[in-house]
Amino acid sequence: QVQLVESGGGLVQPGGSLRLSCAASGFTFDTYAMSWYRQAPGKERERVARISSAGGSTNYADSVKGRFTISRDNAKNTVYLQMKSLKPEDTAVYYCNAVGWSAVYWGQGTQVTVSS
């Protein structure tokens, strides 16, 4: 059974930091590219960061470049999103995504709220 379980979301003040984690199981993690997406109320889901299967390549949305860092630990089947200098516009549900040769998986999401 495939599972992607996100954790680490919560309420944080503007300028603060959070680290999201996504624990994967049920598939060969180190053969899948992993991404973090987010969806704010009334907006489309957007990809904020992607990391290649071996971790050697990363991509970021312009809106988070220099503030967010995606990483992965293939020994722990986990992908992370370190978020710094958070802004109110970063408020959204954050989803973990796995893409392989023939399958795409999604997590259930974790809420991140940036507010004073």
Descriptive notes:
The chain is mainly beta. It contains no helices and eleven strands. 0% of the residues lie in helices and 52% in strands. The strands form two sheets. Strands 2, 4, 5, 6, 9, 10 and 11 form a seven-stranded mixed sheet that branches. Strands 1-3-8-7 form a four-stranded antiparallel sheet, with no helix packed on it. It is globular.
Please give the structural blueprint.
Blueprint lengths: L2 E5 L2 E3 L5 E8 L7 E7 L6 E6 L6 E3 L7 E6 L4 E6 L8 E8 L4 E3 L3 E5 L2
Parallel strand pairs: 2-11
Antiparallel strand pairs: 1-3, 3-8, 4-5, 4-9, 5-6, 7-8, 9-10, 9-11
Shape: globular
Tell me the helix content: under 10%
The end-to-end span amounts to 40 Å
Estimate what percentage of residues fall within beta strands. Answer: over 45%
Biggest sheet features: 7 strands, mixed
What structural class should be given to the helix and strand makeup? mainly beta
- Average of per-residue pLDDT values: 97
Order of helices and strands: EEEEEEEEEEE
Number of strands: 11
Low-confidence stretches: none
Radius of gyration: 13 Å
Number of helices: 0
The gist of it:
Helix content is 0%, strand content 52%. It has 116 residues and is mainly β.
